[in-house]
Amino acid sequence: MVDVARSGNSRDNGDGEDDPADQDKADVLASIGRKARKKKQRSFWKELPILIGVALLLTLIIQTFIARVFVIPSESMEQTLHGCTGCYGDRVLVDKMVYAFGEPEAGEVVVFERPATWNRSEFSANRSSNGFVSWLQDVGAAFGLASPNEDDVVKRIVAVGGDTVECCDEKNRVLVNGKPLDEPYVYWMPGSNTQDEFPPITVPEGMLWVLGDNRNNSCDSRCQGGGGKNGLVPVDSVIGKVRYIVLPPSRWRGVGDHNPQTATASAATQLVAPGLGLVAAFPTVWLGRRVRRAIRSGGARR
């Protein structure tokens, strides 16, 4: 009896060997399968630039219109915000939308563009003389990866338009409209627990009087441009309100806006800040998840 059973889809050509045509078909199918697997494996590398581009676009939109991360480059806001020249300072999330619906208020910590009347900088940006490297540093600053330029300043608002501010009373306190401020956030460096005096000045509408929390290590409205009206900051120069410390992880917290004029603190910052933090972090988290998923998927296909 002739055994006619054969494995697979091959056919016997009569002499006990598989039909060459069937073998050719199998080779073609195997080749197609290998090419398909290679194509699937390469698809991740084609997708990665798209993922990165989308994430960067989302980050750019968020940083431009909603919130931005800034580096604290100096010690003028110690100990509310940590920072020092040449070291890794706090990264803070700045809410850029809040003042589209209201005006800056006393007690709020804000980032603003240095006015033309401010003639002193508290830190050096250390930008490279190489144009391309300097451009990369500017891009990094926009994403909170490098120090900002010297025209970005962070201070606390002490008085707004219509207020009269002066220093000091017999207890070394700043006065606004004749009343002493409640300033638990002020930090006194060892051996310096008195602050510079300045005469009364009435803040015009549309302007702000700002001071650093590190009261004796801050060049602010008291000294910029010689003080007085030259030390004022236009409301239009304000970039946004500091909401949250996002880095380093050990300092994750909200930045309070204790109003020194009313001795009341707003809890809104603690509620809004985490939400804005998630919004600002969304592109990075989304990109990371997509990359991990693509890597796992590519490994499974192998």
Q: Tell me the major beta sheet.
A: 8 strands, antiparallel
The top level CATH class name of the largest domain: Mainly Beta
- What is the CATH-assigned architecture of the largest domain? Ribbon
Taking pLDDT < 50 over at least 5 consecutive residues as the criterion, the unreliable ranges are 1-10, 264-282, 284-289, 298-302
Mean pLDDT: 76
Give the tally of structural domains. Answer: 2
How does the overall form come out from the CA principal axes? Answer: elongated
String of helices and strands: HEEEHEEEEEEEEEH
Strand content: 15-25%
Q: What is the structural class? A: alpha+beta
CATH superfamily of the largest domain: Umud Fragment, subunit A
Total beta-strand segments: 12
Taking the alpha carbons of the first and last residues, their distance comes to 44 Å
Give me the number of helical elements. Answer: 3
CATH topology of the largest domain: Umud Fragment, subunit A
CA gyration radius, whole angstroms? 31 Å
Portion of residues in helices?
Answer: 25-40%
